[in-house]
Amino acid sequence: MKRYLHSQILSDLENKMVFITGPRQVGKTYLAKQIAENFSNPQYLNYDNIEDRRIINNLSWRYNADLLIFDETHKKKDWKLFLKGVYDSRPKNQHILVTGSARLETYRQSGESLAGRYLHLRLNPISIKEMGNDFQPYEILEKLNEFGGFPEPFLFSLNNSVDKAHQFSSRWKNQYYTDLIREDIMDFGRIQEIRSMRLLLELLRTKVGSPLSYKAIAEDLQLSPNTIKKYVSILEGLYIIFLVRPYHRNIARAILKEPKVYFYDTSFVKGNEGIKLENTVAVSLLKDVQFRYDARGENVSLNYLKTKDNKEIDFVIISDNKPETFIEVKLSDRKLSNSIKYFSSRFNDANFIQLVHNLPREETIKKINILRAGDWLKNLNA
Question: CB atoms < 10 A from the CB of 161, how many?
Fold first, then answer.
């Protein structure tokens, strides 16, 4: 399948070097090789490959390569200085695409500047929108809730029995998280911290969609709140989890409030069908917001909203610092939540949507749209 960033990458390569970041095994290398098919003399170089590493270190790739793909090059010492030199001295009409594990995103933000030389795109798991018109949105949403949107287990589930799909998904998941902890997490933390981070990861699986109390988690794990914040930051930087922060007109106050945690891989969530549905919607909304920000330059973010008297809306899309769309997620309940009714009476210029997975009939009550979750998610930007 052709990934959703395909056309955008080709367009951006005409102007700048392009960075693709995202979770492990989300399809970055596959996408890069798809992009290579649009060029006459592409050359793919992976820094983890001994021969490719020699070529990179010696600058001995083909001079007439019209596309250079550097994979995992952030593992090279002074890699940003290296890329800066390659980009500034490249032959005319030579394009550069840089991919890597989630660590590239973290390392990209420090050290030698590449400002003005690259465009950054974040690749996310598969969504209903990305599957096009070949499948029913309801069925795809069911699969995403059960197997997550990472290409290997998700696509396997489409072509095999449920039993085989569950077995494959379990094996994939075990290997995936073992590799993450053994390789990526150890790059950020000391070996003696790995056990604590494993325990934190297991705990977070049960807290999806709830405001995250660092103090309470610290007490459970017998660690300091600052240590928990550090570990959560590492998990977020590695694209294992992402945080949805509360919206407030005073941004500083919003940062101090408790965020909600979600996983990029819905299949890793421990919870009922409703919690898994909320996580899938969160991943889909994050993907949409990041695409609008990265590819279109829009000032958008994904937040939630909660009042002091505990009226809460699951998600709010913020555009130019103003609420654009309020979204409440329900598995089967078509009755309007009290929270969405409350907020709809106070924000006149925003859209209000209650997404329901199992919904026999869509309707609008006053200005609140009660919509089938799968159908609405299919019409997002990414």
Answer: 9
